[in-house]
Amino acid sequence: MRRRIGLLLVPALLVAGGVTACGDATPTGRVTLLASWSESPEGGEKPDDGQPGIEAAAFGAVLRDFEEQTGIVVDYQGTRDVSQVLRSGVDRGSPPHVAVLPRLNDLQTYVPSRKLHPLDDVLGDHGGADLAPQLVTLQGQVYGLSVNVVPKSLVWYARDQRPELPQRPPATWEELVAADGQRTRWCLGMSAPPLSGWPGTDWIEDLFLHRWGARTYQAWTAGDVAWDSPQMRAVWQAWGAVARTSTPNALLTGFNVAGLGMFAQPPECHLDHQGSYIVHDYRRQAPNRFDFFPFPPFAARADAGTTTEIAEDVVGMFQDTPEARALIRFLAGERARRVWREASGGLSFTLNRGTDPASYPDDVSRRIAETLTRGTLCRDASDLMPAAMTAAFHRAVLHYLDAPGDLPVLLRELETVRVGIPDGEWLDLPCLTR
């Protein structure tokens, strides 16, 4: 989907939200922008279940406000396959000025060739210490700006079905499993074309993080942990136990459909492991009937503090123009965050330290925002890994659900992929301590 966001041709006024340029020429033209939010339901991660543009509309509101503030026209292309479209543009010598990437590894791919421009002098002291957690530093320079964050370490339930959970959420993974046993059926859906399988990788990632801790998790995402190690095997086996008590036909069930079974009478499933984006679907199906608790640590990690897996949408600049700089500074500002938060119904989250969770409109969104203000935040492992590793990971979780007895073979195959990837393709980014 490609369209021009606005038609405003008013004088450029770089005001509000930190748009004022420092030493740049006053931009008055156009800026091209590529991102993953599409008004047509193409599928892929976080689709809107046939409701075109829930996320695209919220982002569009931000871009329209930018146009109104500056007079700069945004030519926007939304596609679920950002990686391929961006690569094609770069190879042709006509990349977008700015791209919003859901995979951090894609960002670092363009650093050695200098196809990606650093943002140090674009942002400068803009935002100060509050902005610092949003900056992605590669090889000693800032190349990315995190503009949208999805907390993923969340377990959802129907309030009327599990009235005890708000007061007594499980303190450990073992407590959750022991308390519920076979009584709990997990809501599980793997279908998310064209990237089916990522709901399963989210499971493996959360289990690994909460079993082995942030330091080992970080080593894994950087390619330094073998896939056929005892640590990894234990995590997959833990997920296998979940899958045995999950939604039937999980391979064919949409990830954003599976959890709606919690609200059926009688319930078809009881717990759903999903990121904050799932609230869109819950609100339509069962407003005010859902809640969440944090993904619990394994008992061995119970005293290590809170850890949360996050996914990020990160802005990179592929053509250095005054208009591109103005857009990036705007997206780094409070005004953009406020417009995005309001337009999304309180479901746009940020790493910016200056954002008050109390500014969110309801209890659930406020508590989601609070998860980003404490403990340790570790980025989605498959977003950090090289594309070949991520693709193999997606295929493996689908195969494992279909044939759990093949786990030893699958892990050996994943390990073969890992050792065949050059060291320079791995991205070693630390977890964030709040």
UniProtKB/TrEMBL annotation:
Q: Which PROSITE patterns match?
A: PROKAR_LIPOPROTEIN
Q: Which Pfam families match?
A: SBP_bac_8
> What span is annotated as the signal peptide, if there is one?
1-21
The organism's superkingdom is given as Bacteria
- Which keywords are on file for this protein? Signal
Q: Is this entry keyworded Coiled coil?
A: no
Full protein name: Alpha-glucoside transport system substrate-binding protein
Lineage of the native species? Bacteria, Bacillati, Actinomycetota, Actinomycetes, Micromonosporales
